Amino acid sequence: MAAPVRRVGRYVRQSSGFLRDRVEQWWRDRSFVWSPALQQLTAQIKEESAEHIVVPRKKTWSNEAVLGALASTVNRDSTAYRYQFQDDPYLAPRTSAEFKLYSASQESGRAAAKFFVDNNPKFFTKDFAEPHIPCLMPDSVSLRLEEVSEEALKERVSLRRVSAAVEMYDQLLQAGTPVSKETTYDLLDLICFYSDREPLQEGEPEAEDAEVSAEDLRKMRGRVRRASDLLRAFWRENNNAERIFNLVPEKDTRCYSALIRGMVKHGAYVKAYNMYLDLLNNRMTADVHIFNALITATPDLREKYNERWELITELLNHMCQQKVQPNLLTFNSVLKALRRCGSLAKSYSLQTLTEMKALGIAPSLATFDHILGIFYKSGSPANSRTDILQDVMSELERTSFTCRDPDDVLFFSSAMRTCLDTKDMEQGYKIHSLASAGENWRLLGDSYQQSAFYGRFFNLLCMMEPIDVVLEWYRRLIPSLYYPNTQGMRDLLQALDADSRLDLLPTVWKDIRSLGHDKSDLVEELLALMAREKHGPEVQESFATCALDIKSVFEVEGGRGRPSLEWSTSALSHITSLLLRANKTQQSWEMLELFKAKNRVPSDALLEDFLSACSGSPARAVELVQLSAAFCLPSTPKLAQRALGEFDLSEQQRATLSELETSWENNE
Predict the structure, then answer these.
(1) How far apart are the first and last CA of the chain?
(2) ∠ CA 339-342-343, rounded to 5°
């Protein structure tokens, strides 16, 4: 009887409210007797409960689901090199120079493999990849259509063969064959994008066929990153883009858009604006891409700050009149132009953000990068800055990003530079946490920008945090994320000095040597810190061992049989002092001989320390005074008097010292 009662109670608890009330009322009015009525009620409860059971739909997993689940169970190993360098542990870079060389070699190898695959597709017809990876399959890079036709022109445009496409277009016109608008516009886009030049292939030398004035180079220098891009960034007069544009019988907005955007991209700002005025005179409306390009060019079209803003306002009013809907790039172009508008920028940039929110356009990382660039100028006084960085980070906190603007990759590096300028450690932690969350690390930019980001973060740590925290981050960042340059290691030395943890200098020296900075001025700074003051016996012993290791670096030959480092007087003095304090007398005398060999003059204080270390060795003391006299040091008489008074000398030795003292006084 007990089991059926428990089952009924369980069904009652799981049933609906109305049915539960009925059962409870029945349960109060009747005795606990197993009857047909009770069996009927139990069946009704089962039927009611079965109606609420929902069978879940089948879950469909992607082909990479297992790999994703496994990847989520592991974290980054801070003691290992980057994953991209783990193919061959022997070749894993250990220095910043090797990191650059390895990265460039790896990219060059990929380009070479891609070139071979694309030019020899017949050898790569099998696809064993699961899932299919299209980017690993060969692309068609060779021309297959040789006859004069529009299809051949489309093929050359798709393969980015600028000269071949222009030649085919001219042949079609000469043959009287009409070319469709879409194909003509695609050709115009190609020519304008590459400024009527062939796109460079990997390893191809730069053509020197453009005549660029010094003024043009000066204007373009701030918009390109590499010197090889200077010539390619120039818009040549009467090029094929302008010629084909003039040949188009019925020009429309897209035709003007291609030419205007190409002119802005390659520095012909005035021509681009005149082309826009020509579009208006022909009673046509521009598209959003034209306005975005012209807004970006406004700082180069007007000299004064207020005139620049007036032109931006005029273009925005034209957008409103022509009913062109602005997008994210429009507002980012306004903010980018405002960065070159001086004191007007701060108030107008906030108005721009308000307008973005009113239109429901979410800002991207590039938006906030421009805001920080407007409010935080390098070299500006601290009291002129606001808490705009804190507001930006509050807006971006716990957010995942996708690239929506090419300038998005500049945000993290610029924001960390702002933290470094303002000494804001709290915001620095927030920026690093944001960059490390999820897939946001993909927006750190190229290797140069990533190195700048982590370098600024580490510099900020060294300035603002105690040494224990600095060393903890040092172990987390190096070498898995950051190869510190000379300045980074110098910041670490300064942090050790500020917290009086000079006992760690020998350990830091090992890292300096492994990172390839043992050929720089860091060696002199490290020696100066170790020799600045005396420490306990254990520390002095470790310093002496480190000094001998540094001495071996000076002795290693570099290129063309020359030593890797040139001996300086300070380096010789510091190493000698460190060896003397550790009671390594023999090695100290070898350093003194090195003074003579390198024609360097030791200091008076160093010789006095030597004399103190010569206790029990009168011959060494006499030799030291003779060496001081040979260097013509003013402390020679003092050293001679000390040797006569402190050492048990023979008559001959006393006569030698007395003679040196007398001759020195006569010379005086």
Answers:
(1) 126
(2) 120
